[in-house]
């Protein structure tokens, strides 16, 4: 199987599926200068989705077949339950000259490669903050992305996808065997944090704060704490100790969290989501 190098200075990216995830990746690539919009294409019949991509210069075609024909890198960004049918429909066009990428949760490389008929495939797992351009997949870097390369994907292919998804956040390379755990932690993790923000805001309201102020404080507190964890150079336990004075307010709150099994509950949530990911795949 001959692998033709992707032209790094002129390649086109096509998105099969024009949802929020595809939009955020495309916007990130354009905003960061990784790709001009003229080298990105997708297809959709919904006027609102077409307008969203056209608003920043992306070419919107009528059919997925046209997207594949005009693209060197084809990103499957449709819902997991329809990926198989979409790949099989497009299979005659999915030659080894094209680098294929899946962002669908739970679908293993071995199945993706079987449906496509070759293994020049890369599986990428971004989390939902990518939908607002903050993926840990570096701008304000709240999106996280993990990728795993198929058998025929080259190092150059990996570098291309690393750069593309790096435009929407932080990205790591990992063996596919870790992807269920990645799903349980960073894939589902934003929902856990949204719950925590909502609960913190509710606590502020219960303590007498106006709702808007409580929500703003809760959201900014989580953002600031995450920034310290990433950039502070200290273990989270040490950061916690740094703001916990003897007999003070913070230790009183932590005591309540420990009584409620806060850490164990979060651990259980990650494990349960990872287990469900394995079941779905």
UniProtKB/TrEMBL annotation:
Domain spans labelled Pyrroline-5-carboxylate reductase dimerisation: 176-280
Catalytic activity: L-proline + NADP(+) = (S)-1-pyrroline-5-carboxylate + NADPH + 2 H(+); L-proline + NAD(+) = (S)-1-pyrroline-5-carboxylate + NADH + 2 H(+)
Listed HAMAP family: P5C_reductase
UniProt keyword list: Amino-acid biosynthesis, Cytoplasm, NADP, Oxidoreductase, Proline biosynthesis
GO-annotated molecular function: pyrroline-5-carboxylate reductase activity
EC number: 1.5.1.2
UniProt xrefs under PROSITE patterns: P5CR
GO biological process: L-proline biosynthetic process
Annotated Gene Ontology cellular component terms: cytoplasm
Coiled-coil residue windows: none
Pathway linked to the protein: Amino-acid biosynthesis; L-proline biosynthesis; L-proline from L-glutamate 5-semialdehyde: step 1/1
Location of the Pyrroline-5-carboxylate reductase catalytic N-terminal domain: 13-106
Entry's family note: Belongs to the pyrroline-5-carboxylate reductase family.
Keyword Amino-acid biosynthesis tagged: yes
Principal place of residence: cytoplasm
Name under which the protein is recorded: Pyrroline-5-carboxylate reductase
Entry keyword annotation includes rRNA-binding: no
InterPro entries assigned to the protein according to its UniProt record, in alphabetical order: 6-PGluconate_DH-like_C_sf (IPR008927), NAD(P)-bd_dom_sf (IPR036291), P5C_Rdtase_cat_N (IPR028939), P5CR-like_CS (IPR053790), P5CR_dimer (IPR029036), Pyrroline-COOH_reductase (IPR000304)
Localization per Swiss-Prot or TrEMBL: Cytoplasm
Binding residue positions for NADPH: 64
One protein family per Pfam: F420_oxidored
Binding positions for NADP(+) per the UniProt entry: 16-21
Organism: Senna tora
């Amino acid at each position: 199987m001959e692998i033709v190098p992707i032209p790094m200075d002129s390649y086109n990216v096509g998105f099969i599926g024009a949802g929020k995830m595809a939009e955020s990746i495309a916007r990130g690539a354009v905003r960061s200068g990784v790709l001009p919009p003229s080298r990105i294409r997708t297809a959709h019949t919904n006027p609102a989705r077409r307008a969203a991509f056209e608003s920043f210069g992306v070419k919107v075609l009528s059919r997925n077949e046209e997207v594949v024909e005009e693209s060197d890198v084809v990103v499957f960004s449709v819902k997991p339950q329809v990926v198989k049918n979409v790949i099989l429909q497009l299979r005659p066009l999915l030659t080894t000259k094209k680098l294929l990428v899946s962002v669908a949760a739970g679908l293993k490389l071995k199945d993706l490669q079987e449906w496509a008929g070759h293994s020049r495939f890369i599986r990428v797992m971004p989390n939902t903050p990518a939908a607002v351009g903050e993926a840990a997949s570096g701008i304000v870097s709240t999106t996280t992305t993990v990728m795993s390369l198929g058998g025929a994907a080259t190092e150059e292919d990996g570098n291309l996808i690393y750069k593309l998804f790096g435009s929407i956040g932080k990205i790591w390379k990992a063996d596919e065997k870790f992807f269920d755990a990645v799903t349980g932690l960073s894939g589902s993790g934003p929902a856990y944090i949204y719950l925590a923000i909502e609960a913190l805001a509710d606590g502020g309201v219960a303590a007498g704060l106006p709702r808007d102020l409580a929500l703003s404080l809760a959201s900014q507190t989580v953002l600031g704490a995450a920034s310290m964890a990433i950039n502070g150079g200290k273990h989270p336990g040490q950061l916690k100790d740094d703001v916990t004075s003897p007999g003070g307010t913070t230790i009183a709150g932590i005591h309540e969290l420990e009584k409620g099994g806060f850490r164990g509950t979060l651990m259980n949530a990650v494990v349960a989501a990872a287990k469900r990911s394995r079941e779905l795949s």
